[in-house]
Amino acid sequence: MTDVDAHHLYGPSSLDALSGCVRFKYNDSDADAATEGTELHKAFETGDLSGLDDEQRQCVTAIRNFVESLKYSGGSAPEEWEDLPEAKLRLDALTYGTADRVLINRTRKRACVIDAKFTHRETAHDFQLRAYGACVAEMWPEVETVETYVAAPRLNDIAIKSYDARLLLRGTRAEIEALYARIEDPATPPEQHEDLCCKCANAVSCPALGATVTVVARGLGLPMPDRFAVDAITTPRDRACAQVLAGALANWSEQVKKLNAAYVEESGDEIPGFKLTRRSTGLRVPKDRTADALSAAKEAFGLPEHTLLGCCSMTVGDVVKAAAEAQGVPEAVAKEHVREALADIAVEGSCAFLTKTKRLSDAALLKQVAAE
Fold first, then answer.
1. 89 domain-assigned
2. Which of 77, 118, 122, 179 is the most exposed place for a label (fewest CB within 10 A)?
3. Which domain holds residue 334?
C-alpha cells in the first residue's frame, strides 16, 4: 500500500466503524459508560474485582472463567497456552492496537483472540476481530488456526469464529488496504448505518442521514406511526416504529438545534419562523471554586456550615479519586472503600431502556413488525 501515511493508521476498533462508513467520527461518548468500561476491562485483565458491584463482578468473572475454559478445549492443557492480557498487536503498515486477551498454543498451532464487551446493546464487531486475528497470524507465523471470541456477558452471548490463519491474514490485509483506499479517496461518500449515525459527530452535515431516515421510515412500504403525538402512540406496532425513528433522528436533531442556534448568534441572520431566545440556565459555581463559594456565603450571610453543606451535592467519582490519592491506592480499591463508607447514605442509580431482542437492522425489524 503506497498512498497511506504510516502516521495515519487506524486501530482495529476504528477500522470496524470506518468499514460501516468511511466518514464516521465518534461523538462525545457518555462519560459514565466509558469510565465503567475502563474499570471492567481492567478487572478482566488483572482479576482485581475490588470496587465493583455484584453485577459487575459477575460479568467480569464470567468472562475470566470462559477464558480459563478455553485452555482445556480441544484436549489441550492450561500449561500449553501462552496467556497475553492486553496484548499489543500489529499488522505491518496497516493497523495496530491492543486486544483484551490473546491465547497462543504453539504445540497445537492454535490461537484464541478474546474481546470483552460490557455493553447492554447488541452490535457486531467482525471487522475488528478479524483485524486482531490477522495481527496474530502475522506475529505468530507458526499458528495455523485463529479463533475469535466476542464475549458479552450482559447480553448472555459469545460470538465465535474460526479461521485458517494464512487465509485470514491474506484476506484481511486486502480488506484493510481496500478500506484505506476508500478513506483516502475524497470522493467516497458517507454511508447510512443505523449503529453509527446515532453516535457520529458528523451527523448534522451528513448527506446520507436523510437517506437513512427515509429508508427506515418509508422504504419498501415500511410502516410509520399512525399518529405522532407521543401519548397517542399506543399499539405495539406503532411503538416499535416510533422507537426505530427515535434512534435514527436523536443525534441528528440535537446537533441541528445546536448548529442553528450558533449560526444565528454568530451571523445575525434569521431562520424563517424562529427567533433566537436567551434564557438563564441558572447561577452556578464551578466545581473547582466550591470551597471559595462556601467561604464567601458563610462570611456574607452568616450561614452555619451544615446549612451550606446541605446546599451542595457530592460527586462520588470525585470522592473516589480524592480518596485514592490520599490513601495511595488504586481507584478501584478506593471505590470499594467509598462504597462501604457510604453504604447507608448513597443511592445506587439505574436506568431502564429498550434494546433489540434480535440482531436485526431497523429496516428488517420494521418489515417484521409490518407483517405481524
1. yes
2. 77
3. 301-341
Does residue 64 register a pLDDT over 90? yes
The position carrying cell 497511506 is 4
Same domain, 65 and 95: yes
User: Dihedrals φ, ψ of 95, to 5°?
Assistant: -160, 160
Would you give the end-to-end CA distance of the chain in angstroms?
A: 50
Instruction: Tell me the pairing of strands 145-152 and 110-116.
Output: parallel
- Asked whether residue 206 is assigned to any structural domain, the reply reads yes
67 and 158 assigned to the same domain? yes
The three cell numbers locating residue 353:
431502556
**Count of the separate structural domains present in the chain:** 3
- Asked if residue 48 and residue 137 are part of one domain, the reply reads yes
The answer to whether residue 283 scores a pLDDT higher than 60 is yes
pLDDT value at 219 more than 80? no
pLDDT score at 332? 78
Question: Does position 313 have pLDDT exceeding 70, yes or no?
Answer: yes
Per-residue pLDDT averaged across 11-21, rounded? 88
* Residue 118 sits in the same domain as residue 215: no
Query: Please, what is the Cα angle at 151 between 35 and 82, to 5 degrees?
Result: 100
* Pair 222, 161 in one domain: no
Q: Residue 266 and residue 259: Cα distance in Å, rounded?
A: 10
The answer to whether the predicted template modeling score (pTM) of the entire model surpasses 0.85 is no
Residues 44, 32, 126, CA angle at the centre, nearest 5°? Answer: 55
